[in-house]
Amino acid sequence: MRLPLVILALASLGLSVPSFADAVTYDNVGHEANAASLVVASSSGAITGYFLGQDAGHDSVIRLLNLTSGYTSDFFFQNHSTAVGASVDFGNANEGDVLVFELYNQTIDSTFATDAAYSDDGLVHGFVSSYAGGLLDGNKFPAGIYVGMEDLFGGGDFDYNDNMFLFTNVDLAPSLQRDALVAAHAPEPGSLILLATGMIGAVGAVRRKLLAR
Predict the structure, then answer these.
(1) Is residue 40 in some structural domain?
(2) Is the N or C terminus of the chain more exposed, i.e. has fewer CB atoms within 10 Å?
(3) Does residue 94 lie within any of the structural domains?
(4) Which pLDDT band holds residue 136 (cuts at 50, 70, 90)?
(5) The pTM is what?
(6) Range of 67's domain?
């Protein structure tokens, strides 16, 4: 990334220069990303996303899938209309919840994801990496996990820059732990039964009140 001339001038005068975060790039262009890492919630709370940019001909949007709780967010970050630096609350998660990011290609009506099991073509369409934070293209971003998505069926050029974003309150874990993490943080069957029983009881109580009128 080239620094603006004003920054170079400040540096030559010995004045302080704001630090720039290096843009995250995918170094294995033309090849499918390694699925060695999965994304998990680092603590219980909101998952916030920041739009970093795009380099795509097709239109796309992004949403979050929580494999542990079953929660699915709305779609955000339309790649051709979202301003760089825009932030969105993608919803809450509990510590350790396993998360997947999905790209919906609006141009060809196809869905692709960071987890190959959720991609229409069975390929990994997301490159994930730790991000140190800092200034990028004049916007200040916090540290988090960078995600770059590929939006073409079959992987296209595998450059993973068609919709790029950053998430906070998330971390990386070995993908081999995926099933164990989902199982470990899923609601207990007994809890689900109690919840269902309570809901049935509540519906019954409302029904009885209506019939009594």
Answers:
(1) yes
(2) C
(3) yes
(4) confident
(5) 0.74
(6) 23-188
